[in-house]
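does this look right to u?? manganese (II) ion version
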Amino acid sequence: MCMAQAGDRDVARGRGSAGPVPPYAARAAGADDPGADAPGYSGLATFAGLPWMPGIDDLRARRPDVAVVGAPFDIATTHRPGARFGPRALRAQAYNPGTYHLDLGIEIFDWLDVVDAGDAHCPHGLTEASHRNIRAKVGDVARLGVIPVIIGGDHSITWPAASGVAEAVGWGEVGLLHFDAHADTADIIDGNLASHGTPMRRLIESGAVRGRNFVQVGLRGYWPPPDVFAWMREQGMRWHLMHEIWERGSREVVAEAIAQAVDGCRALYLSVDIDVLDPGFAPGTGTPEPGGMNPADLLRAVRQIALDTPIVAADIVEVSPPYDHAETTVNSAHRVAMEIFAALAHRRRSAAGGTADLPAGLPEMKAGS
Ligand SMILES: [Mn+2]
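got this back:
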């Protein structure tokens, strides 16, 4: 990226002074915007350089469209730990790519107000207390009518996070679209009801999420066993194995999954376990399973979901930075959030009668396409 300043040119041509140059800005920076006018590797590490707003009173006063909430918790993982470092890595190590979405032709933050609401406090070793705090913080955000985008953390955090959302928008009225290599619907693992392999069962058992609007995409490998799938079938759950994506293609399968998830449902929670990606793309995760999706398909799926569904919340989990290489996992997880932001911004613009400002030669992307 070459973003030389006009002032630099003047200096290079021997005109003007060699005094300090203003930081480049991809967008107009507000006074409360610690990272917007600085490169991603400097200044305060908020998510995408967005305003830092950890207090509920500040959120209530501002009422942003979206608030990023960290859930740095990883003691429910069955294999490799490290997802507690996911929120920090997504804030500090993801490369901030700019703010203009090329395919949608939109300057994202001109249309969508997004803040970083900080982390739910997750005291070490205390699953119940951590989950209670996650549920409370996410619920507080959702009750304001703000869309929480939760960055984990292991997948156990979806239990409290989606419960908090269901409490806010309607218990049992939330559908869940779930991208993952694993179904995470076990009853109990090693005596743990709150394992990262059990949250989806807890959500259906409690009635927080409807079984018939619970749709999974990308399952593969060697788990869970048939009795778990039998339970899932009894709940009316639907799932699309990675094999089906391989056979039919991602676009068609995702369109069907969206239709199933929103059928008769007025609110949707999107949960993305980064291990839905092939470990070649996303090595930094707790339970890597070969044979997964590629980032292009996942990012387009997420964009389509945020364009086409009544999305009220999303989470991105299982990013384990100690196992990452070259920040590939961190960057893919970060872009999942960026696709959600861009699609929601596009909806705002469409509702206001605005049109896309597209790079030449690209057709405008529509909802439902
Ligand atoms: Mn998984």
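The two ends are 31 Å apart (CA to CA). idk if thats expected tbh
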